[in-house]
């Protein structure tokens, strides 16, 4: 008698684990919530909240000059080019933006892509067989994927650990072509790359340096030109990648570098060749945003001052914003302020409590950060007001007391305003902290919660795979 065939596993069922079902089927959750954000606030479930999860650092996505430029390009060129840059998707606007971005970054040439993710994927032609690529373990997922797609031998070094990188470079094949890739400003914890050391190591070992400036181009440095300007190293970076969805308030990506390398990537990078080009409206918006970035430095000053005050206020409350190791760079202030929680379920509880206080934050758990390093990520915008800052600190005060993260009597949630109401006036606690009044943190360990409230999904299971891969940051 013939053996009975083994039933085939259903590939959908295999991957739809209880984790994913729990995350998808639960009620209110930190992810995929529909909302409308503008001016440092957002409407979430019909309620106006302070928005601190958006990367619109300079507040340009809703600037009338940017939206007017987008509308003008939309009317003039249509909604889409309906073709790749290689064939029929190149407009005069694309070439204008490329020339402007190249000049802004101090590079001979640039090419724009449809998204920032694609800009990083476009470096894969530089990762050939027999080459070596060295990547910071905290690099963005798009860089991780680019390295996986390339044919080069891969080496990961511990986050911003220059001794680890130097050891790996020193023991590598001296004859191999080498590439070091790093985020300029790391998106989860808000720390800058160690550009001076990276540059020295690259030159010493004959490596090229690629910097993803997604979060620092338009923001860091006196002119907003990025980490190279911030560190006073205009010739340090061999190839820039970046996105136009942060400081530029649009969508799209950019690669900038030597003319011959940019020309090579125009004809070899699949994310450039095999996709429709950056939409005209997005190009128009980015051009207008660049005008503002170059002419209004006060926006950078504003957002960095707000971030410094928020970081100081959260520390005064007793929260950990520095992580297990100091942030890199000389007293670096960036618009990204992390609040380290550790446990993923506790992070979910804190996120929900803060939302109940009228502030929308970003709960970050594995694999975006290592297991046991969950955090609440706050992104400041130039359009945030002093009142917004006080409300954020008030929310962390009330939520932290209820969860026994900080000392003080447990506070009751502040009522959130309906969509047609103005943002509530800031209670006195946040204003007191922002003016320097300290709150003593709880020294005793935080007791594990007996259960997660029904309205908060369990984030531990769906978002922590086993075994845990190297963390990749989610923008």
From TrEMBL:
Arranged from A to Z, the UniProt key words for this protein are: Aminotransferase, Transferase
SUPFAM superfamilies hit by this protein? PLP-dependent transferases
Entry-linked Pfam families: Aminotran_1_2 (PF00155)
Q: Which domain of life is it from?
A: Bacteria
Instruction: State the Gene Ontology terms under molecular function.
Output: 8-amino-7-oxononanoate synthase activity; pyridoxal phosphate binding; transaminase activity
The EC number of this protein is: 2.3.1.47
Q: Which reaction does it catalyse?
A: 6-carboxyhexanoyl-[ACP] + L-alanine + H(+) = (8S)-8-amino-7-oxononanoate + holo-[ACP] + CO2
InterPro entries noted in UniProt: Aminotransferase_I/II_large (IPR004839), AON_synthase_class-II (IPR050087), PyrdxlP-dep_Trfase (IPR015424), PyrdxlP-dep_Trfase_major (IPR015421), PyrdxlP-dep_Trfase_small (IPR015422)
Listed cofactors = pyridoxal 5'-phosphate
Q: Which residues form the Aminotransferase class I/classII large domain?
A: 54-396
- State the name under which the record lists this protein: 8-amino-7-oxononanoate synthase
């Amino acid at each position: 008698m013939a053996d009975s065939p083994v039933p085939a596993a259903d590939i959908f069922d295999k991957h739809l684990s209880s984790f994913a079902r729990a995350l998808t089927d639960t009620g209110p959750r930190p992810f995929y919530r529909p909302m409308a954000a503008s001016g440092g606030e957002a409407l979430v479930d019909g309620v106006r909240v302070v928005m601190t999860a958006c990367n619109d650092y300079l507040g340009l996505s809703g600037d009338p000059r940017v939206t007017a430029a987008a509308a003008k390009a939309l009317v003039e060129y249509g909604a889409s080019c309906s073709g790749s840059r290689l064939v029929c998707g190149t407009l005069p606007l694309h070439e204008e933006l490329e020339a402007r971005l190249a000049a802004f970054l101090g590079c001979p040439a640039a090419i724009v892509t449809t998204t920032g993710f694609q800009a990083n994927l476009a470096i894969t032609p530089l990762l050939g067989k027999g080459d070596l690529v060295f990547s910071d373990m905290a690099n963005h997922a798009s860089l991780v994927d680019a390295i996986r797609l390339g044919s080069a031998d891969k080496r990961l070094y511990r986050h911003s650990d220059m001794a680890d990188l130097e050891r790996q470079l020193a023991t590598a094949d001296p004859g191999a072509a080498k590439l070091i890739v790093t985020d300029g400003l790391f998106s989860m914890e808000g720390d800058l790359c160690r550009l001076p050391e990276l540059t020295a190591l690259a030159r010493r070992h004959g490596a090229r340096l690629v910097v993803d400036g997604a979060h620092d181009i338009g923001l860091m440095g006196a002119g907003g030109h990025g980490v190279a300007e911030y560190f006073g190293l205009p010739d340090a970076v061999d190839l820039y990648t970046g996105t136009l969805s942060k400081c530029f308030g649009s969508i799209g990506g950019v690669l900038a570098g030597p003319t011959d390398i940019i020309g090579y990537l125009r004809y070899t990078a699949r994310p450039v060749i095999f996709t429709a080009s950056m939409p005209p409206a997005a190009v128009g918006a980015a051009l207008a945003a660049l005008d503002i970035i170059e002419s209004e430095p006060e926006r950078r000053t504003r957002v960095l001052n707000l971030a410094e005050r928020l970081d100081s206020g959260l520390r005064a409350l007793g929260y950990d914003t520095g992580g297990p190791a100091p942030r890199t760079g000389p007293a670096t202030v960036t618009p990204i302020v992390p609040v380290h929680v550790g446990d993923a379920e506790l992070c979910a509880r804190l996120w929900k409590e803060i939302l109940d206080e009228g502030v929308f934050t970003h709960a970050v758990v594995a694999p975006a950060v290592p297991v046991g390093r969950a955090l609440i990520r706050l992104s400041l915008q130039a359009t945030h007001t002093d009142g917004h800052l006080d409300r954020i600190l008030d929310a962390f005060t009330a939520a932290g007391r209820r969860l026994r993260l900080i000392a003080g009597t447990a506070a009751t949630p502040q009522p959130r305003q309906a969509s047609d109401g103005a943002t509530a006036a800031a209670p006195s606690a946040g204003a007191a902290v922002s003016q320097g009044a300290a709150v003593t943190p709880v020294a005793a360990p935080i007791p594990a919660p007996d259960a997660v409230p029904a309205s908060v999904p369990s984030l531990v299971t769906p978002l922590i795979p086993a075994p845990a891969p190297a963390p990749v940051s989610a923008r």
